[in-house]
Amino acid sequence: MQKDEITGGCYCGEIRFSATPDVRVSANCHCANCRRAAGAQAVAWIVVKRAQFTFVKGKPHRYETETGAWRTFCDQCGTSLTYETDRRPDEIDITTGSLDHPEDFPPTKDVYPEERLPWVDLIHA
User: Fold this and answer.
1) φ, ψ of residue 48 in degrees (nearest 5)
2) What is d(CA 21, CA 86) in angstroms, rounded to the nearest whole number?
C-alpha cells in the first residue's frame, strides 16, 4: 500500500519534514564525503522531487561542502537529513535513516561503489 506522504525528522524531534511518496531512487552511497558527513560506512538515501519536499518543523543547519553541494542537519542533535546539488536542481536526497518508516525504502542500488570500504558488501540485485 502506497502512503500519502513520507515523513521523518531528526533524533531529538526539533526538525520534521514531509515529502510526496514519488521516490525516484533508493540507494546506498559509498562516497567518502557521505561517509565522513554521517560517520558511517555508507549512507542510505531516497531521492524525491525538490518541489515535493518541505521542512514542516524547525529549520535545519545548511552546510556547503567543498564540492558545492548542500547538506542539512539538526544543529541540536546532529542528525544528517538532506543533500542537494546544482547538478540535480530538481531533486533532493533524504537520508533513509531519518525517515519515520525507513523499512519502506530498501536500497536497490549502490552509488560510488568504487569508493566503498573493503569490508562493506554491495547490493547484488
Assistant:
1) -130, 170
2) 22
For the chain, domain boundaries: 6-115
Strands (E), 22-113: 25-29, 43-49, 53-57, 61-64, 70-73, 80-84, 91-95, 109-111
Cell of 45: 538515501
CATH dotted code for 6-115: 2.170.150.70
Dihedral of the CA atoms 67, 90, 11, 116 (nearest 10)?
-50
pTM: 0.92
Span 55-109, pLDDT tens digits: 999 999 999 998 899 999 999 999 999 999 999 999 999 999 999 999 999 999 9
Is the separation of the CB atoms in 15 and 105 below 8 Å? no
20 close to 39: Cβ distance less than 8 angstroms: no
Q: Can you tell me which residue has the cell 536542481? A: 89
